[in-house]
Amino acid sequence: MVTIEELKDPVADYVREHRIPGLMPVGDIRLQPSGLIMPKEFSRYIDRIKNFQVRPDDVWVISYPKCGTTWTQEMVWLIGNDLDYEGSKNKLLFQRFPFLEAVGIISDSQKSGGDDDEWVFNADTISYADELPSPRCIKSHLPVSLLPDQIWTVKPKIIYVTRNVKDAAVSYYHHHRLWNGYTGVFPLFMQAFLEDKLVYSPYWDHVIEYKKLESEPYILINSYEEMKKDLPSVIRKTAKFLGKSLKSDEIDVLADHLSFEKMKSNSAINGEELIKEVKQRHGLDPSDPTLTFIRKGEVDSWKVEMSPDVARQFDIWTKKMTKGTILESLYSN
Ligand code: PPS
């Protein structure tokens, strides 16, 4: 049973008040018992998501936002579709690999704004995913407790991706500047992250709840950092998990397709048309290189943007939140 409370709080209010209206909403409600922060729009879709029909041959890619979801989606789709590069080029990732709960995190005014529906922006993404032919690929950022109930009986393959929390937070800040029209300052956004007041927070509960499932045969956990360090190994491991075997030259070609430069210039993935329109309509700087979807793609880029003080706050918070959990040994020093 999910209950909903209004998110009334100075930091959440600050984020809500410092944004361009008409873009994506930020956190307005807290769901219990999970503590999940969502825009109020989401409350209308909880039951439909919980009752969503899961199929055994689905493949789900799940993460906290900005942890490498899109990168993983493209990898998984190509492995699952026998390296159909033509198919991947000719159909937007949003269509091939729908974002289940997107309908619940986009404001109603945006939906009726007549956006190009190629991006499945106006669509009811739950129905869209429901009607896709098998085998389906589905993206979600939902925490364990909000996933469809059938996930736990049908047990489709799930790939969860993690990323260094400081890099994820910095990436989420830039995401908010673009998609949510966030105009507030960086330190207060970071405070909102640390206080778990942003959409899809609480961050550590998200990661820990999936980590606890890692020994299940239908769950694979990859990390952004592993992908950056040795993408061919991650491709091999993921292919094996999906019951596919790839030759080494196929792995090399796929790793090249998934390189940051190639993904950044791939119009089936980078959202450039939609972003151009969003920037125009909402007066965002068209030449700002940080207002892109495939943005920087680096490990430890937080070191450039985060002050030592904010970085220290993240370390203290991480140690506190992971104490006594499955992740304690990683962060106890
Ligand atoms: S979202 O909006 O939650 O689905 O975002 P998500 O896809 O999870 O994360 C976006 C970040 O992933 C980076 N990215 C990549 N990095 C390296 N190589 C490749 N190919 C790649 N594709 C996407 C993207 O740039 C975002 O990270 P930042 O740090 O903002 O650059």
UniProtKB/TrEMBL annotation:
<feature type="domain" description="Sulfotransferase">
    <location>
        <begin position="56"/>
        <end position="324"/>
    </location>
</feature>
<dbReference type="Pfam" id="PF00685">
    <property type="entry name" value="Sulfotransfer_1"/>
</dbReference>
<comment type="similarity">
    <text>Belongs to the sulfotransferase 1 family.</text>
</comment>
<dbReference type="InterPro" id="IPR027417">
    <property type="entry name" value="P-loop_NTPase"/>
</dbReference>
<dbReference type="GO" id="GO:0008146">
    <property type="term" value="F:sulfotransferase activity"/>
</dbReference>
<dbReference type="InterPro" id="IPR000863">
    <property type="entry name" value="Sulfotransferase_dom"/>
</dbReference>
<keyword id="KW-0808">Transferase</keyword>
<protein>
    <submittedName>
        <fullName>Putative sulfotransferase domain protein</fullName>
    </submittedName>
</protein>
